[in-house]
Amino acid sequence: MNTLPRFFALLLAAALIGPACSTTPDPAEKDAMERERLAREVDDELLVGREIASRLLGRFQHYEKNRAAIEYVNLVGATLAAQNGRPELRYRFAILDSDDPNAFACPGGFIFVTKGLLKLVKNESELAGVLGHEIAHVNEKHMYSTIVPKREVSTSETFVRLLSRGKSEIGSNLAQIVDNGMKMLMESGYGKEKEHASDQAAALYTKSSGYDPMALLPVLERLKEASKSSKLSKTHPPFDERTASFQAFLKENDLKSTLSASRQQVMEARFLAVLKKEAL
């Protein structure tokens, strides 16, 4: 029996009756509505993320000189995302041609790392720690949930939206949302709690993907020095605080490197072959 006409008949009835009559969908219909809502939310997140990523690429030059380095960053990022990413997203990684050490995460899985930051990391686990931190920002919707506040939608309103298959309401507000996203990336930052949470998530992500969970620690220490001559301190909490918080998290969770000597050698050789400073 084809249940689709019955489903849309119920939607139409709910839309026409409105608040005069309370219509409670059965579990199957409720599940269908929830799937549709989540799909639209992902579409909105991708729309916002693409626009912010486009703005970033308008501000910074897209690095294309070393194809091996680009592929390598994507390989490490994809390894982390496969184990720890949101299944509904496809994570994309790119290098920005800037000597200022920094990394950016846009909603929907668009992640950028600067050439300057690649010169700062010393091995593959450190690179994984950096990318894991940015993946965590995407996973937890640190930007998206701030610039696109969640609005509660009634059941009857959900019925109408599903029936109409209308376009997302985000369209009319897109320019302002993107402006706010860029301001967060370039000026205000995510705030201390979200940065600390992403550092901690990076330790868990790297460990689950076969990397050293402690590897972000020396990167934070180098970034502290680099921040004296860059804009990092403007968008990030004090690195002394981040380092102390990260060390405490590692200790509390007994997170230590369990890499074998042979795996370390393989990763070191791969890293040096691709990310030599003179090759960037």
SS-derived structural category: mainly alpha
Query: What is the total tally of β strands?
Result: 3
Bin the helical content. 55-70%
Low-confidence stretches: 162-166
Estimate the global geometry from the Cα principal axes. globular
Q: Kindly state the mean pLDDT as a whole number?
A: 86
Q: How many helix segments?
A: 13
Task: Describe what is shown at a glance.
This protein is mostly helical and 280 residues long.
Polypeptide structure, described:
The chain is mainly alpha-helical and 280 residues long. The protein has one domain (6-16, 23-279). The protein has helices at 4-17, 27-59, 67-84, 115-120, 124-139, 144-147, 155-164, 174-188, 192-208, 216-226, 232-235, 239-252, 261-274, and strands at residues 92-96, 103-106, 110-114. It has a 3-stranded mixed sheet with strand order 1-3-2. β2 and β3 (110-114) form a beta hairpin. It is globular. The termini are far apart. The relative contact order is 0.13.
Index terms:
280 residues, three-stranded mixed sheet, 13 helices, 3 strands
